[in-house]
Specification:
The complex is a heterodimer. Chain A is built from 28 helices and 37 strands. By secondary structure, chain A is α/β, with parallel strands linked by helices. The radius of gyration of chain A is 28 Å and the shape is globular. Chain B contains 17 helices and eight strands. Classes of the chains: A alpha/beta, B alpha/beta. At the A-B interface, β4, α2 and α15 of A face α12, α13 and α14 of B.
Chain lengths: 913, 430
């Protein structure tokens, strides 16, 4: 966090000399030195408040001092030359645990946290064993916190981490500390779902079992019984590193996997709770099927027959997917030939993603990782509703506004780890964040200005700012006085910034907005070489798909135009990519349609051949995230035999490693993919890397009800990792860094043992390879002429819960999602004669609810994306709506679940005006 | 000694209104203070040696001097009127009997600090003081002593009265600041001190009511006069008081350094008939017991400190020979336990445990091992272990009680009953 490194100082701890960073606190440095010191309230991402008193150690005034004085390591800066002891404060630390245990129920045996409980670890570490308290315990009433998080307050040790994460770090408001003394209670004012999009992190932040993963609890397994693998979230374009866990062939849960450059310690609730579809027979395709015609009933086929049928489809075109891995797309491209490979993206999304790729290749600005986002001290967001399209980045932006507080703290010589003091000092002063958006966003509470305008106007404002940094950019017209004043403020903020950042992306579905963002970054770069640019995409591998397209312009509309008779679609539902009528027409003209997919889709329902493919949890592969970071994910478990990874359907004879290598050798900019894994032949200590912990239980017994013979361990044809508990996790090979564990550290806190310093890089290497980082400073291209043909009457509205195809099929997410709707400003509705609270007929899509929101730009209509009941491609760009007075709300219409950012702007429906 | 704090107090007539107060020489210090440069006035107060009257006794002028130079932004003076220390009722007397003295002190002090806004953070239960202060503040505004032009100058000062929602911890200055901001009343870690980052992150001074009430007379009469008001080394007069089974419990302004014997015998009229002095808490519930042999201790910060206790608020609670000391300590600990803010572990979880053991002992269910645990607890919650001074303060009567009343503790446990056996609140709460 500190800018610039201070010189190390030397201290001794129990006569052991160590070199430490004086800008860090003692606790961090003690842990970084590999020593064990128990703690609770401190967290590497949330720093120190000194409440739990667990990390006590003894500081000696000088060499003569025999007694020393007790200090809290997390609240102390190391003093050069000072002498400390951990041992001398051991009794106090045991007493602290004993105090916390007074009301703790000791229900480890039935607690979900048992076995990965920081409280258990710290209790053992502190030496406290026998509880002397013999009175009654304090008990609490628990709350129903919604579908994601369980609540068991009796286990609470009152470390305040939950509210510090939820409120201070993530900006939530509906969870708080209540009451006082030993009745302190952490909960909501009333039962109800936690509103924060990051609530799942409570389960990881809580050092014991107060907040637990409710989805996991429904099919619970101990941590040590979970088979896990290093994986990548498929929920959006950020590519958070995750650690899924499996038992008995079902995916049980997803937890955060540390990657300091991407997600750090936290992921969003879509990523954590949006994988239920993997286990859901109603959603999954478990067995390949054929249909003699599009209307006929499907017939199950064997893998061999299905493979043969795929083999026989010569002359087919291939349609790839942004949710399929690099290798799966590449295998399809190889199968059908580059000339016959189409991206499976709408014309518009293709154009924007292609533009983003080209910008990344040309821009002099640095492509911002999430770590860079947090380090930026002046941010402009153009059009992207980050909380709903790339939630983890929204959380990073929320941290970026804290730089002002760090500056103020530095002025007052307050160490930056002193979290409460640093936050108090700045109060509401923040580093500048500007948001130009057609509607209110969840980040508005920390923005300097949220300017409500359509994408075209946002692009012009960005251009106006750019023109102030470089006269080559033409200052646009059509800015009113308020906007000109805004341009001045943004310009001033960027001039004063150490590291400015521009964020835009493909989800706003506006090409000129992305272009204008790039121009602004380029203009800013002339003045500040630390300028950052982040252009988020929509799905896990959208940018990767564009890398595969190379110079090809073949989007989905072009595929439709081929008039082909035969097509292979990999993991893509065309009805989510193009107008319904166009897809219908295309499919109707096909004699052969093969769909390789892991979930049932409308496209698949009409296919002649459906091949059951593996999800991210059952297959390995590579995703390229929004910043061009290629990241490899390893299968967590082996699916039933009838399910094959998409790569095996398309290239049955080729290993995954061969496909990855082929990508790296064939595709421009993809050479770095060769370094993603330690290689197919990797062994550590002579064995493959185990997916199961050494405490994995029931290996010989868990299938004994079916067969007393222990089955042969499943083989992973991709090598590197085994479906076994044999072998040891390599300590210094971050590319296969699985579930962290260290002696005495069974909880996720153990990750610091694998970092070069607390909160730093994983030892040896970080995860992933940035493909688009310029090795040599490329020649700068000129500014992009903005596409001026775009109309801005309609804009897309996203939902973290519901807009993404796969997670939306998960029951936990569905409990927080809603069906499709159209939203507009009440002034427009009045003008156009729409009734408040009524429905509207959308061309080609029937009737959907109309939501009136004050915070929507007038003259624009918001169209929900991905929610059931409306195909956004039917509506954009020219929206045509008719009032539907006879409207009745569909059962899935749950307006309460719309996490509208304009919570303060009450729904007009409810106001009843 | 000249009465500086109580000179206007006449219980037969109630507090003076603005005109009456001015007629008695009130608000004269405002003009005099504003003739001084702010830093000069801070130096004056520092030299006068006015110890903080909230209980810590820290030099007020020195505390003020840590405030940085004005930067054009807001600066705050906060009067700590959240008087909740057990057995303490001196600020209440001052505010109910002479509210304008406090307001005058606030204005003079605010000038020295160049504060832009002042708050009086008043204990919520002090409803009479609230009413009287609100009236007095209105009067001061109406007569131009507060507002855009203090006393006709271009110095602007706003004064607000805030009534507390009621927690003992709000008497801790940083918790008070949090409460005033509308946050949970938990203390903040120091540094940064409130002078640097206080209310809403801005420079802030928090001073006790009595401290502020001393400012006008120091400004008017000077350092030498103030130093003469004390009997010993320490300067000024001080509000003293006694509660307990004495003949005339009450509160008086006396020179700092007055002996406890004088206070008890001359002012409180000695012990009530049939009761003798067993021990006394010199300055509120969070000070160590002193014993009858300490009758002649001069009541000053340093002299009481030498005996291992604290002068605290200087409002003495007398423990007589008919009252169970364990019951007394339990009562205090129960209060402190309930008033813990819940922020740090030793205080939040340690105090209820101590309370539990004391109740068990008092009610005849005590165990021998409790005595070792209680001793251990006094260290566990001692100074430096906890986030703020609440728990160490709570341990003061316990640790001194364990020292002086060990025989009683052992008797309770051995006989499995309270030998005092009077109808105590404890029996009801059990």
């Amino acid at each position: 966090m500190a800018d610039g490194m201070s010189e190390k100082v030397s201290i001794t701890i129990d006569n052991q000399a160590i070199e430490v960073d004086p800008d860090k606190n003692l606790l961090e440095e003690v842990l970084s030195a590999g020593l064990d010191l128990p703690y609770f309230c401190w967290h590497p991402s949330m720093d120190s408040v000194g409440s739990c008193r667990q990390c006590a150690m003894t500081e000696y005034a000088d060499e003569e001092d025999q007694h020393g004085r007790l200090i809290m390591a997390c609240m102390s800066s190391p003093r050069d030359g000072a002498r400390y002891s951990l041992q001398a404060a051991a009794d106090f630390r045991a007493e602290i645990i004993e105090g916390m245990m007074i009301s703790h129920p000791h229900d480890c045996a039935v607690c979900e946290e048992g076995g990965e409980c920081h409280l258990q670890d710290m209790t053992v570490m502190s030496g406290h064993t026998y509880r002397r308290y013999d009175g009654t315990k304090v008990t609490h009433r628990n709350q129903n916190l919604g579908p994601f998080i369980g609540h068991e307050m009796n286990r609470c040790i009152t470390c305040y981490r939950c509210v510090r994460f939820y409120r201070d770090y993530a900006g939530g408001t509906d969870l708080g500390a209540q009451a006082s003394h030993h009745h302190v209670y952490f909960g909501r004012y009333d039962d109800g779902p936690l509103e924060s999009e990051f609530s799942g992190n409570l389960a990881e932040v809580c050092p014991t079992g107060v907040f637990t993963d409710k989805v996991f609890s429904k099919h619970y397994s101990r941590k040590w019984d979970l088979q896990t693998s290093p994986s990548i979230c498929a929920g959006c374009s950020i590519g958070c590193n995750i650690n899924p866990g499996e038992r008995y062939g079902t995916l049980r849960r997803v937890v955060n996997r540390y990657n300091d450059e991407v997600n750090g310690y936290f992921i969003c609730d879509r990523g954590r709770f949006g994988t239920g579809y993997v286990n859901d027979d109603a959603v999954r395709i478990r067995q390949s099927m054929t249909r003699s015609s599009q209307d006929a009933d499907p017939v199950l086929v064997s893998n061999a027959d299905a493979l043969q049928q795929l083999q026989d489809m010569s002359g087919a075109i291939g349609i790839g997917s942004p949710r399929a891995s690099m290798e799966a797309n590449f295998a399809l491209r190889e199968k059908v030939g580059k000339a016959n490979f189409y991206a499976g993206l709408s014309q518009q999304e293709f154009a924007i993603l292609q533009q983003i790729l080209s910008i990344y290749q040309d821009t002099p600005a640095h492509i911002a990782s999430l770590k860079d986002v947090e380090a930026s001290d002046a941010v402009l967001i153009l059009g992207e509703d980050l909380t709903n399209t790339a939630a983890r980045m929204a959380l990073a932006v929320r941290q970026s506004v804290r730089h002002r507080s760090f500056e103020k703290a530095a002025e007052q010589k307050i160490p930056l780890w002193h979290d409460a003091a640093v936050r108090k000092l700045a109060m509401d002063e923040r580093s500048p964040l500007y948001i130009l958006s057609p509607h209110a966003t969840r980040l508005d509470d920390v923005s300097e200005t949220t300017h409500i305008c359509n994408a075209g106007q946002a692009a012009r404002i960005a251009a106006a700012v750019a023109s102030r940094f470089d006269k080559e950019v033409l200052a646009p017209e059509k800015l009113d006085k308020a906007e000109q004043a805004l341009v001045k403020r943004i310009t001033a903020s960027f001039k004063g910034a150490r590291q400015p950042l521009i964020i835009a992306g493909s989800n706003s579905m506006s090409l000129p907005l992305v272009q204008s963002a790039a121009n602004l970054a380029q203009a800013l770069y002339q003045k500040n070489e630390l300028t950052q640019l982040a252009l988020v995409g929509s799905e896990a591998n959208g940018l990767g798909l564009m890398l595969l397209m190379e110079d090809s312009q073949q989007d989905l509309q072009q595929a439709f135009a081929t008039g082909t008779q035969s097509a292979i679609v990999v993991e893509n539902d065309l009805y989510r990519r193009a107008p319904t009528a166009e897809v219908d027409h295309f499919i109707a003209g096909l004699e052969q349609l093969a769909v390789i997919d892991n979930i049932k889709t409308r496209t698949g329902e009409q296919a002649h051949l459906v091949c059951a493919s593996a999800t991210f949890a059952e297959s390995s592969g590579t995703f390229v995230n929004y910043e061009g970071r290629a990241q490899h994910y390893y299968a967590t478990f082996k699916p039933v035999d009838s399910i094959l990874p998409a790569t095996r359907w398309l290239a049955p004879e080729t290993s995954l490693a061969t496909l990855t290598q082929a990508c790296s050798q064939t595709l421009a900019n993809c050479a770095g993919m060769a370094d993603l894994t330690p290689g197919q032949d990797y062994h550590y200590a002579g064995l493959l890397v185990p997916r199961q912990q050494f405490r994995y239980s029931g290996r010989t017994a868990m299938r004994a009800n079916k067969n007393v013979h222990e089955p042969k361990q499943e083989q992973d044809p991709d090598g590197i990792m085994s479906y076994s508990m044999e072998g040891v996790s390599p300590l210094k090979e971050a590319r296969v860094f699985n579930t962290p564990w260290a002696p005495g550290w069974n909880s996720n806190q153990s990750v610091f043992k694998f970092q070069d310093e607390v909160g730093g890089h994983l030892k040896q290497s970080s995860i992933g390879v940035r493909l688009l980082d310029k090795r040599n400073s490329a020649e700068e291209g000129g500014y992009i002429a903005l596409d001026s043909s775009e109309k801005n009457t309609a804009f897309p509205l996203y939902h973290l819960f519901g807009s993404e195809e796969l997670s939306a099929q998960s029951q936990a997410i569905q409990a927080r999602a809603t069906s499709a709707y159209v939203a507009m400003n009440p002034a427009d509705a009045d003008r156009l004669g729409f009734n408040a609270g009524g429905g509207v007929t959308v061309q080609g899509n029937g009737v959907v609810p109309l939501l009136l929101r004050d915070s929507i730009a007038t003259g624009s209509v918001g169209i929900s994306v991905g929610l059931p009941g409306l195909n956004v491609h039917d509506v954009l760009p020219d929206v045509s709506l008719e009032p539907a007075p006879q409207w009745q709300a569909p059962p899935q219409w749950q307006p309460d679940n719309i996490i509208v950012s304009d919570r303060l702007h009450k729904l007009h429906e409810q106001e009843g005006d | 000694m000249d009465k500086a704090l109580t000179k206007n107090i006449d219980e037969t007539r109630g507090p003076l209104d603005y005109q009456g107060y001015v007629a008695a020489g009130g608000y004269a210090s405002v003009a005099k203070a504003m003739e001084m440069a702010p830093r000069d006035m801070m130096a004056l107060i520092k030299e006068a040696g006015l110890g903080g009257r909230g209980g810590a006794g820290f030099n007020t002028g020195l505390k003020w001097s840590f405030i940085p130079e004005p930067d054009g932004g807001p600066r705050y003076l906060v009067v700590n009127a959240d008087e909740m220390e057990p057995g303490t009722f001196k600020d209440r007397l001052l505010m109910e009997q002479d509210p304008h003295l406090l307001i005058e002190g606030v204005i003079a002090s605010a000038w020295a600090l160049q504060a832009t806004t002042a708050y009086i953070f008043l204990r919520g239960e002090y409803t009479d003081a609230e009413e009287l202060l609100l009236t007095a503040i209105d009067e001061a505004y109406a007569h131009g002593m507060l507002g855009t032009s203090v006393n006709g100058s271009d110095y602007r000062l706003e004064l607000y009265l805030h009534t507390s929602a009621g927690r003992y911890i709000c008497g801790e200055e940083t918790a008070l600041i949090n409460a005033l901001e509308g946050q949970r009343a938990t203390p903040r870690a120091k540094p940064p001190f409130p002078q640097i980052s206080g209310l809403w992150g801005r420079p802030t001074l928090v001073n006790n009511v009595e401290t502020i009430c001393n400012i006008p007379s120091i400004v008017l009469n000077g350092v030498d006069w103030f130093k003469q008001q004390g009997l010993g080394e320490e300067a000024g007069s001080k509000m003293f008081g006694i509660s307990g089974r004495v003949n005339n419990p009450g509160c008086w302004e006396l020179p700092l350094g007055t002996t406890f014997r004088t206070l008890l015998e001359d002012y409180a009229g000695g012990m009530r008939e049939g009761y003798s002095l067993k021990a006394f808490l010199p300055g509120g519930g969070s000070t160590d017991f002193l014993m009858p042999e300490h009758l002649d201790v001069p009541m000053s910060y340093s002299e009481v400190g030498k005996l291992g206790s604290r002068l605290g608020t200087a409002l003495v609670m007398v423990l007589d020979d008919k009252t169970c000391p364990i019951g007394c300590i339990h009562n205090l600990i129960k209060f402190f336990s309930h008033e813990s803010c819940g922020w740090c572990t030793p205080c939040r979880d340690g105090l209820p445990w101590v309370e539990h053991m004391l109740l068990e002992i008092e009610q005849g269910r005590g165990k021998r091992e409790y005595l070792d645990i209680l001793k251990e607890m006094t260290g566990y919650m001692g100074p430096g272990k906890t986030f703020c001074a609440l728990a160490p303060g709570a341990m003061a009567p316990l640790q001194s009680g364990l020292k002086h009343f060990m025989a009683e503790f052992e008797q309770h446990i051995d006989e499995q009953c309270c030998p005092y056996k009077h109808d105590h609140q404890l029996q009801r709460s059990a």
